[in-house]
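Residues and backbone
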Amino acid sequence: MSKKSNNNLTSLDQILDQKYGKKGQTKRKAWEKSFETFKIGVLMEEARLKKGMTQAELAEKCGTKKSYISRIENDGSDIRLSTLLKIIHEGLGAELTIRF
């Protein structure tokens, strides 16, 4: 079996460079920030579903509202770190790791 050439592939960075500008530019920074909050929402939803919990159950367990959990999972709205930690630790029984 021969390997096919990847000359026709476009990397994610190339697509982002074209659409939002090079890394460090204002429009690109805004996209990267919104993508990070989106990832938090997706990870939180996956962890909740693995535990077999509804949004309402998670909210009750960590002392917040279902609508807040929904907002985080669906649009990655701005999240206070203290609230996020409470959701992760108390609600999901998990740990948060942050890397720079």
In short: Residues 80 and 86 are 10 Å apart (CA to CA). The mean pLDDT is 88.
